[in-house]
Every structure is written in structure tokens, then in C-alpha cells.
Specification:
Elements (H helix, E strand, L loop, with lengths): L1 E5 L2 H10 L5 H13 L1 H6 L4 H6 L10 H7 L2 H36 L5 E6 L6 E3 L10 E5 L7 H16 L8 H21 L12 H14 L7 H8 L19 H10 L1 H4 L9
Parallel strand pairs: 1-2, 2-4
Antiparallel strand pairs: 3-4
Helix pairs in contact: 6-7, 6-8, 7-8, 8-9, 8-11
Length: 279
């Protein structure tokens, strides 16, 4: 897969205007703009989805607010800071792209070809996976404070969100199982391969029990042999009674979607509430 990191003025400006202010200076600028051009400002609130349909070719019906913001010194500073942030994400992705693309394909077993990452200022703290009604849009709006400190984690988190967006319409009635498997795939297995050490105990606390119940079958999905399972349990610090889990050899031939369907179909056997000791 590939990621295209884009700084789109319209997306950046829209988020500056309608998300929480990143500084007092920006807040004062927004208030002044709203008082002077209230009608045009308010009208822009509904424009985000129009922009997201085709960010590259979007043309506003009314340029007034966009032009005012672009001409301001404040926006020039925000734009420059956002470009620095965009380049840091791009540099990190370029550093790990070859390994991550190979491992991602090995884990997911389906293709995600290209995603456009619409980069906004990190202080906006945005992870936006909006689905545009009536159109498949391979874009995600992204800007998070912690990325500046943990750049490799930024890419893992970004890939998690992309896979979540790809599967937003898949088995929606079993959302927790879908999210648990995605986290096992990206935040745990992909990150473990990237860092060279297990990070299987990380993740959303609300998914902890579910992930551990799925974990034995997840190892089978990864193609871990019966003889190797103990080594993986030690590696990941997750123990379970192997005698209680018949080895499902066919799981290694599934893709992630089929594995999720397996978990849903067999959830009564997988989610064993009485076996809380494996946590």
C-alpha cells in the first residue's frame, strides 16, 4: 500500500475555523472573522463533506472566508508548522514503508492500495475517518500532538484507522469483534514486527478480554504451528491452556475478513466468560 501525505488548504482552514482553537491568537482571529462575515462563516460549516468528496478539485461557491484566512499572517504560520509536521510524517513513512507494506499484506491478506492523508496542524488533535455518503473516499484527516514525540507510533495508529475505515461497513453489528481483530492485526502484530519486541499487551482496555479470548485462534490465523504456540505465549506474555483449543489449521489460509467472520460465527466457543484466568 502507499500513503500520500497532503496539505490541503481548504481542509486545514475548515478545521481551524470549526474545531477547537489551537491558540488564543487563532481564537481571537476566528471571533473577529465571525463578527465581520457572520453569514459567510456560518455557511461554511456544511462544506466539509463537499471538500472531502474531492479535496484536490474542490472549488468553493464563496471564496470570501477562505481568501481572508489565506491572506492572514496567522494562517501563514499555521501553514508552515503544518508543512513541517507533514514532512515528518512523510519521512517516517518512507523510512518504514517497505517493511510495513510487506508485513501489512502478510497480516491482512487483502490489498489497500492508496490512501490520501489530509494533514492538519497537530495541535488540532484530529483523527477523522468520515465516510462521504454515496462515494468511496480513500482519505483520512490527520493531526495529532503525540505524533511529534512518537513518529513511528503515528504511522501504526494511522494504519489502524485506515483499516478501521476500510471495514466500517463490515459486520457492523459485531463492531467490538471487528475492532478487537483490527487491534490484534495492527497495534499488536504489525507493531511487534516493526519494533522487534512484543507489544501485545497494549491497546484499548475495553477490548482486553475479547482480544485475549481471540488470541489462540489469532496465532492459528498467523500460521503459528502447534509446536511454536508456547513460544508465542511466552513472547507476548499471554497464557492459555492449549489442550482446550483444537488446532484450526484452515485459519492460516483465510484473509482478515474471513477470520473476523470465523470469530463471529464461533463466538460462543471463543468468548468463554468462565475462563477469565487467561487474562
Amino acid at each position: 500500500m502507499n500513503l500520500n501525505f497532503v496539505l490541503n488548504d481548504y481542509i486545514l482552514i475548515w478545521n481551524l475555523l470549526f474545531q477547537a482553537s489551537i491558540s488564543e491568537e487563532v481564537q481571537r482571529f476566528k471571533q473577529k472573522l465571525w463578527k465581520s462575515y457572520r453569514h459567510s462563516y456560518n455557511k461554511l460549516a456544511a462544506e466539509e463533506r463537499k471538500i472531502l468528496k474531492d479535496p484536490k478539485n474542490y472549488i468553493p461557491d464563496d471564496d470570501t472566508i477562505f481568501d481572508m484566512v489565506k491572506a492572514s499572517d496567522i494562517y501563514q504560520t499555521v501553514h508552515e508548522q503544518t508543512e513541517v509536521y507533514r514532512l515528518s510524517l512523510l519521512k517516517t513513512w518512507d523510512e518504514y514503508k517497505k517493511q510495513l507494506s510487506k508485513d501489512l499484506k502478510d497480516i491482512l491478506r487483502f490489498d489497500i492500495k492508496l490512501y490520501h492523508v489530509l494533514v492538519v496542524h497537530p495541535k488540532l488533535n484530529i483523527t477523522d475517518m468520515k465516510v462521504v455518503k454515496g462515494k468511496k473516499v480513500n482519505t483520512i484527516t490527520w493531526g495529532r500532538r503525540e505524533d511529534l514525540t512518537y513518529p513511528s507510533e503515528a504511522i501504526i495508529s494511522l494504519l489502524n484507522c485506515i483499516v478501521q475505515k476500510e471495514l466500517q461497513d463490515f459486520q457492523v453489528e459485531y463492531k467490538e469483534i471487528v475492532q478487537a481483530v483490527i487491534e490484534l492485526a495492527i497495534n499488536n502484530e504489525l507493531a511487534t514486527r516493526l519494533y522487534g519486541k512484543s507489544v501485545y499487551l497494549r491497546g484499548d482496555p475495553s477490548l482486553k478480554f475479547l482480544k485475549r479470548q481471540i488470541y489462540p485462534y489469532w496465532l492459528m490465523y498467523l500460521g503459528v504451528s502447534k509446536a511454536e504456540i508456547i513460544n508465542y505465549m511466552v513472547r507476548d506474555n499471554i497464557a492459555f491452556d492449549t489442550d482446550k483449543y483444537p488446532y484450526e489449521k484452515q485459519l492460516a489460509s483465510l484473509d482478515l475478513l474471513a477470520f473476523i467472520e470465523f470469530c463471529i460465527k464461533n463466538q460462543r466457543h471463543i468468548i468463554k466468560i468462565s475462563e477469565l484466568e487467561i487474562i
